[in-house]
């Protein structure tokens, strides 16, 4: 899979967001603009209802700022297999832009601000659905912008009809640009750069044939001419289904790694990992920094340390993502999501007693490592009881400690959550800039790491790496209940900064507008403020009081 690269930039004006919000809240339907697709609130509300019911609420029963982002992020990841820029929980904040010409990664924060102006005590289910609907709308519009560029690169014009053969070429260009994150003005990537290209091309051809059949019926489409409207419908369908196609490669990789995990603990020794070959060639330091690998006590008694790759964490690493458009990134699907959603639908509350959770898990299988009926090992039952004891007898479903429990219970599906500051996930290019190192290991260093790992395995024969895990498939670690309980609760202090910032921005905007009216100097003042606070935050650094939390 390709490393992540700097995505193409696109923008949305704040006026378009205001209009979209007014329309969807008034009519319940957002016409797709250039894309002839309706985004209907009711269907989105139904999809969101289970996780909304289970999410932590404000006193009025709504979602606060950070929980809204958490729920929306999970919606897009589960439904489409995409990460929306500016919405992912670990995505860097962005600066406020004046005047309000927004880059795509600023759209979620600004749209959320508009909604929270209407609802001071959090978002209701309807407003959450509106938030998601409008994001879907602009994601599709961004895909159409990329399609337009692909037409121009292919020597065609969007206003002209094209032959099916020409459309094949346009769709190949679009897909290659999605895989490579190419700039809109050029295409320098060839299919040979992507081992999965043949299967992805078959996928796009299949979707294209299905959409054209709706237009042309069963007649051969070879001699037909295709309108830009039909091409847009194809692109929207590809975007909505691409996550599943991309995830098939992820599943294949996971199965290869699972074969090297005979104990079923969701770990692969570094030497075995490198033995898989292909593009599994990241350095040990990069894997450790990303939280995709861990150091462990080889002998179990304070001996030497080894490194092993954590299967679900590795699959969730950003190097496995592809920057499709300026709006979204496609990543490997989090296989734990299905398990968590099953619990959320059954419990319909933010927390539950441990006995209720254990009863549900007894009949909850996974495709890779767990069969049912299942008797949970005593060590894991005890771990769940300890979480409940720290929370008045209830287990919070969205806390880090329950996520850790789920990793222990489903080690190949559920990522091991990192405590705050223990890892520093970055896109590949940012990691290279920060460290000055390459993510890809050299042959010489790989040989050294494999040799060290073989020595570690020899030592392990004299120890018991899993000595404290009798009767389980996973080692547990000592719990520190003073650590953060869950990601969205941690960020509430940041939410207060968020609202303070927005009030400051409103005051600045008002001051600028007044000065413009009185002195007729809007352009001059706008340029001054644009230079100071209109810069898009680059490189993942949070360094300004103007940043959204």
Give the SSE layout.
Elements: E1 11-13, H1 14-27, E2 29-31, E3 38-40, H2 41-54, H3 65-80, E4 82-84, E5 101-103, H4 107-118, H5 125-153, E6 162-163, H6 164-180, H7 197-216, E7 225-226, H8 228-258, E8 267-269, H9 270-275, H10 284-290, E9 293-297, E10 305-310, H11 311-315, E11 322-323, E12 328-330, H12 336-347, E13 351-352, H13 354-361, H14 378-389, E14 395-396, H15 400-409, H16 428-435, H17 443-460, H18 487-490, H19 492-519, H20 522-533
Helix pairs in contact: 1-4, 1-5, 2-5, 2-12, 5-6, 5-8, 6-7, 7-8, 14-15, 19-20
List keywords for this structure.
549 residues; mainly alpha; 3 domains; 3-stranded antiparallel beta sheet; globular; disordered C terminus
Please provide a written account of the structure.
- The chain has 3 domains: 12-138 and 491-549, no CATH class; 161-248, no CATH class; 262-332 and 418-489, no CATH class.
- It is globular and about 65 Å long.
- The two termini are 31 Å apart.
- The protein has 549 residues and is mainly alpha-helical.
- Strand 9 and strand 10 (305-310) form a beta hairpin.
- It has helices at 14-27, 41-54, 65-80, 107-118, 125-153, 164-180, 197-216, 228-258, 270-275, 284-290, 311-315, 336-347, 354-361, 378-389, 400-409, 428-435, 443-460, 487-490, 492-519, 522-533; strands at 11-13, 29-31, 38-40, 82-84, 101-103, 162-163, 225-226, 267-269, 293-297, 305-310, 322-323, 328-330, 351-352, 395-396.
């Amino acid at each position: 899979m390709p490393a992540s690269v700097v995505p193409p930039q696109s923008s949305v004006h704040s006026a378009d967001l205001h209009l979209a919000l007014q329309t969807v809240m008034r009519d319940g339907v957002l016409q797709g603009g250039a894309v002839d697709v309706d985004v209907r609130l009711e269907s989105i509300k139904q999809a969101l209802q289970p996780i909304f019911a289970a999410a932590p609420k404000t006193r009025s029963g709504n979602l606060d700022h950070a929980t809204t982002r958490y729920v929306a992020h999970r919606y897009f990841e589960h439904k489409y297999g995409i990460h929306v820029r500016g919405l992912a929980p670990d995505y860097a904040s962005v600066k406020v832009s004046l005047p309000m010409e927004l880059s795509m990664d600023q759209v979620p924060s600004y749209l959320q601000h508009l909604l929270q102006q209407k609802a001071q005590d959090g978002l209701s289910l309807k407003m959450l659905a509106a938030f998601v609907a409008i994001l879907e709308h602009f994601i599709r519009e961004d895909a159409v912008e990329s399609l337009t560029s692909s037409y121009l690169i292919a020597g065609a014009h969007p206003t002209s009809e094209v032959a099916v053969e020409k459309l094949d070429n346009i769709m190949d260009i679009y897909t290659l640009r999605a895989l490579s994150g190419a700039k809109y003005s050029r295409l320098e990537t060839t299919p040979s750069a992507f081992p999965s290209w043949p299967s992805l091309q078959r996928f796009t051809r299949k979707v294209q044939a299905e959409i054209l059949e709706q237009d042309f019926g069963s007649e051969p489409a070879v001699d037909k001419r295709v309108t830009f409207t039909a091409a847009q419908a194809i692109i929207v369908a590809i975007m909505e289904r691409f996550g599943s196609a991309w995830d098939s490669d992820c599943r294949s990789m996971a199965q290869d790694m699972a074969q090297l995990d005979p104990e079923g603990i969701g770990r692969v020794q570094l030497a075995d990992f490198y033995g898989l070959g292909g593009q599994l060639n990241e350095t040990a330091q990069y894997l450790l920094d990303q939280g995709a690998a861990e150091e462990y006590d080889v002998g179990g008694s304070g001996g030497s340390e080894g490194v092993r790759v954590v299967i679900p964490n590795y699959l969730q690493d950003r190097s496995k993502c592809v920057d499709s458009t300026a709006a979204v990134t496609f990543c490997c699907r989090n296989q734990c999501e299905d398990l968590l959603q099953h619990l959320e639908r059954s419990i319909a509350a933010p927390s539950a007693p441990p006995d209720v959770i254990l009863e549900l898990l007894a009949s909850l299988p996974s495709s890779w490592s767990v069969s049912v009926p299942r008797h949970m090992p005593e060590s894991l039952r005890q771990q769940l009881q300890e979480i409940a004891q720290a929370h008045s007898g209830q287990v919070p479903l969205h806390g880090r400690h329950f996520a850790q429990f789920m990793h222990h219970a489903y080690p190949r599906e559920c990522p091991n959550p990192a405590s705050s500051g223990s890892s520093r996930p970055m896109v590949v290019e940012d990691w290279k800039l920060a460290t000055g190192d390459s993510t890809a290991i050299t042959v010489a260093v790989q040989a050294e790491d494999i040799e060290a790992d073989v020595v570690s395995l020899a030592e392990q024969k004299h120890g018991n790496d899993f000595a404290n895990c009798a009767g389980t498939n996973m080692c547990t670690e000592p719990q520190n209940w003073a650590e953060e309980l869950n990601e969205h609760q941690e960020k509430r202090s940041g939410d207060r900064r968020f609202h303070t910032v927005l009030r400051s921005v409103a005051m600045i905007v008002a001051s600028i507008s007044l000065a413009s009216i009185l002195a007729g100097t809007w352009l001059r003042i706008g340029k001054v403020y644009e230079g100071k606070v209109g810069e898009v935050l680059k490189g993942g650094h949070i360094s300004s009081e103007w940043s959204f939390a």
